[in-house]
Design goal:
119 residues, mainly alpha, 6 helices, globular
């Protein structure tokens, strides 16, 4: 089977992400979509670790489209991402940072539910 078809099977949000309509001035969204496309189509689908990252970045950008609060947080936080010049795979480093921003957002917004035990 064609590699691109296999990648698209792993990415259920692909067409929603690619066809997302955003303002022309929104450079962050434009760059995130380009990074997403480059990463998923250049990933090694035989490598289980990269397959997990492909699925996760697809999920994260799906949330980026759906969740306005996350979109605002990402647009602020993405400017704080720093990648060392000596890093070999810069695209992977950027994708991992995007996922880390999402994980931090999820931790902040998900509240702990404590069920008190009545005596």
């Amino acid at each position: 089977m064609n590699k691109n078809k296999l990648v698209l099977e792993m990415c259920p949000n692909f067409y929603r992400i690619i066809n997302f309509e955003y303002f022309e001035e929104d450079l962050v969204t434009d760059k995130l979509i380009k990074i997403y496309e480059n990463f998923i189509f250049n990933a090694d689908i035989k490598n289980d670790e990269e397959v997990k990252i492909v699925k996760k970045i697809d999920y994260v950008l799906g949330k980026y489209i759906d969740d306005n609060l996350f979109r605002r947080k990402m647009q602020k936080e993405i400017y704080n991402v720093r990648i060392a010049k000596t890093y070999k795979n810069k695209l992977l480093a950027i994708v991992e940072n995007i996922i880390a921003i999402f994980n931090h957002y999820e931790e902040d917004t998900t509240r702990s539910i404590y069920i008190a035990r009545w005596i």
